[in-house]
Structures are given as C-alpha cells and as structure tokens.
Records
---
Amino acid sequence: MQACLLQLGNGAKLISAAGTMRAITRAISLTQPCLPEYTPKRQYSRRLPIPPVNRTNLLVTTCSHQTIDARLLRLVEASVEKIDADPALIRRLTENVSRWSNLRLRAQWQNRLQQPWPELRALLLADTDEGAALRQDAPLGGILPPAERVQIMRSFSHDARPA
C-alpha cells in the first residue's frame, strides 16, 4: 500500500492511499486555522432595465412545414443559380463540408460532392422526400449574398420590406 506525506503548515501527516477525503480534511483542520464563514454580499433588488427589441431587424417566421420547405427550396434554387453561373463556387461546398463536426454527414456529403454537378443539382432540386432531406443539410452556406438571402426569407414571412 502506498502512502503520501501531506505537509501543511507546521505539521506533517502520513496519509495512506486508502485514506479518505475525511483524513485529508482532518489533517488540514489540524494545521490550518479555521476560515471565517462566508457571508454573501448585499443582494441588489433593483434590476437593470432590459433594452427594447429592435423590431426592424427581427424576422418572425412562425409557419408550417410546407412553408419552411418551400422557403428552403427557394434558397437552394437561388444558390444553384449562382453555382450554375460560376462553377468555381462548388469549391466552397467542399470547404463548408470539411468544417463539419458531424462525421456521418461529412462523409455523406463528401461522397455526394464527388458526383458531377448536374446530378447533384438534380438531386437538390428534386421534388421528392429525398430532395427535401438533402436540402435540409445542404452545404450551401456563403453562396448567396446576405441581401439576397434576406430578401428570400422576407418573401416567406409577413414582412415585405426591401432588404
């Protein structure tokens, strides 16, 4: 059985490996003066005011699954149009996938990105359950400019302000 020497202040105590926290606490209490009781600081009853919400930047989007799917389809369509116009943007999809922490999704999308763009494009735009599932986790972040994304989001909300 191993033992360690605990030296605190003026005294030294031999504590075995089988010793408990109680033995250590007892050794500390023998050599250390008692600490004063903790007294909490004064509690403030006055709370700071919460600033009002800036409603000009707030998008309220409480809608049905069908509306969410339609909005996501429109976002994917706009992203696909950008990629069709500039095929170099496909590299951004690969970069996005490489940063994902979900290894299963990362592997799935790395395999999908090996497909030719016309096939992947058709899968993303398919009006099927598989197409809807692919759109849910498509790595299209950063393809659309923020103003265009906000415009699409607002077109599906009750807020029709320009971006």
---
Amino acid sequence: MAITAPSPQLTQRSATDLAAAIRNRQLTAREVVQAHVDRLHARQPRTNALACDRFADALAEADQADERIKSDPDPPPFLGVPCTIKESFAVEGMPNAVACAAYHYLSNSVGGVTVEFMRESDRKAWVNFVPPRWIYPGASICGVPSEVSRAFLRGWYAQNGVSLGNPRLGFVCTAQTTDGQHGLSGYFLEHDLDLSPEERVRQALKAAA
C-alpha cells in the first residue's frame, strides 16, 4: 500500500509553493501568515531574530490579500506570502531610528568593524564603535583631526533620515575617538519636529579626562 507523506508544516514550505496554494485558494493568506507569526512567537525568545514586529498589520494585510484573490484573476505572484524585512528598509509602522542603528551595526560588522548596537526605544537607538577602529592600529586614530570625524557624521549620518523620508530623524554624537574618548558613540533619535539640515547631527560631547 502506498504511503502518502504528510504535508510539511506551512513554515517549512517554499515561497513558490505557498504562493501557488494561496492563489489556487487551497490555503488562505491568513492561515499562512498566522502560522509564521506563531512560529516567530515561539522562537523569538531563543533566536532574538526580530528587532520589532508588525504582526497585527501583517494579519490585516493577509485578510486584504484573501479578499483580492477572490475577485482578481491575476493577482501579484507572491500576494499573501509573508516575509521578514531588514531593519535598514523603511516599512510603514516600523521605527526608523532602530532601522538606522541596526543598519550601521550590520554593515560595519560585515566589513570587520567592531560595533555595538542597543535599542533604547522605538525612537532612540545607539551605536558604539569600539577601538581599535578599522585600519587604525592602537590609538593612531586619535591623530585624525576631530573636524574630519564631524564632517563624516554630517555627510553620512545626517542624511539617514533624508534617505528614509523622515525629516524628524537625526543623530546625536556623544563621544568621538578622535577626541581621545572611548570610541565613536551616539544615538539615532526621532524628534517631535522636522529638523533643519544643521540640526540633523548634534554634538553632545564630554571633555575627555
């Protein structure tokens, strides 16, 4: 007698398989998304894979996808299939300050730069670059003029909010290695009001002992 293999759990099936099942109405997008939400809830305490979630929005969007599939003969190919999005991408309802800090943590870590990341809240997240910095052995980075570090922050960190379309997002620098402090440190902060170009980076430095 032939034995039929059990269907794999929804969270183990490929995106193309799930897309076809949703499109052919063998599964609903709500069922698929709920299965992934349940799996993430179960594994998050151990993996800490999500910086933040939007589960309620995802389930609401799944319901919208199911309604569209009922009437649309040619829906988008992966409509209703859930996915995770890296924090460095601006997604509606997700905190931009955390996205920026997480991006700098990830991108620098990939490049071999030692950096620490801490989310304080949805509107405030820290980055700290620990010496020795990148190509500078020992304390040699302290020979770089402080103005060079400030110019770097104005040219790059000040533009993060602009890139995300968030005029309230800025960076507050609390320490600079070039000033003889413990490292380049600071936090991305979403303010209550739009920032002028001069306000996108603020210095909140303490004199080195």
